[in-house]
Amino acid sequence: VEQKGSLVTAELTRFDISHPQAISADEIAAVEQRVNAAILANVAVDAAVMSMAEAQQAGAMMLFGEKYGDEVRVLKMGDFSTELCGGTHVARTGDIGLFKIISEGGIAAGIRRIEAITGLNALQWAQNQERLVRDIIGEVKAQTEKDVLAKIQANSAHSKTLEKALSQAKSELAVHAAAKLFDNAEDLGTAKLVVAQIDAEAAALRDIVTDLTGKSDQAVVVLAAVNEGKVSLCAGVSKPLTAKVKAGDLVKFVAEQIGGKGGGRPDLAQAGGSDAEKLPEVLNGVKDWVGGKLA
């Protein structure tokens, strides 16, 4: 790695390095172990002003591209580190206390940023983490810290099972409700038109529309559902009518007016949109669009 930037304050230390990928948790742990081992060694921190030539001879680390004067300040921490640095530092490495990396992430292509804390800040961070773990133990009703992960995994699996059952129940209710829609279909002479917004999962619309178009060889169906602010659309046309009305064109007509797009086969097509507020008005215009195609 190569240093690309740094910051040292009373609150934290920030270190930017060239690195082609994310630094793994194991690598972070290894860095923490090495740094804390050097801190625990409690070696003296020696600072000396010398010429650049003397610094180079001493093996001081220098950053390519940095500008240095004729005289430089060389900082040495035992055999662990020798580098050029102009800052104010501790007298011994042990003065630093605990060193803990708290974040790692990318800030530019090939550049990673590490943030760490030391001393009492690191102790406070550890205490906060301990408090958080205790809160999680209580929330998931685990017995000990060792049981927390298994308890969370069990709760997650149970939640997924419930979500699947709920989704299936909503789909069954939507199919039942949609069947009644066909009984009230609008008669356009050569076609029976069903246009409605229903309470259903996006994934269920296709099956519902297919079921409705299967009830007649004159069906034109457009169903919409809004979930978490997003509009899902599905259009279906009985195959005998696809010469005049194509489901792909119909769903595109609706979707383009609500900030979306989509398409599909002449007898079945799907789309999405983002402007749920305009949906009722747009659905009201479907009858005239279909009527124009049938004329």
Q: What is the tally of beta strands?
A: 13
Strand coverage percent:
25-35%
Low-confidence stretches: none
> What's the shape?
elongated
Number of helices: 8
- Largest sheet: spatial strand order: 8-9-10-11-13-12
Give the distance, in angstroms, between the N- and C-terminal Cα atoms. Answer: 72 Å
Summarize model confidence as the mean pLDDT: 89
Topology:
Layout (H helix, E strand, L loop, with lengths): L1 E7 L4 E6 L6 H17 L3 E7 H6 L13 E7 L3 E4 L14 E10 L2 E8 H22 L4 H39 L2 E2 L4 E6 L4 H12 L5 E9 L2 E8 L9 H10 L4 E4 L3 E6 L5 H6 L1 H9 L1
Parallel strand pairs: 9-10
Antiparallel strand pairs: 1-2, 2-7, 3-4, 4-5, 6-7, 8-9, 10-11, 11-13, 12-13
Structure description:
The model has no long low-confidence stretch (mean pLDDT 89). The protein is of the alpha+beta class and 295 residues long. Helix content is 41%, strand content 28%. It contains 8 helices and 13 strands. The strands form 3 sheets. The chain has a 6-stranded mixed beta sheet. A 4-stranded antiparallel beta sheet has the order 1-2-7-6.
Descriptive key words:
single chain, 295 residues, alpha+beta, four-stranded antiparallel β-sheet, 41% helix, 28% strand
Question: Could you write a compact summary of the structure shown?
Answer:
Helix content is 41%, strand content 28%.
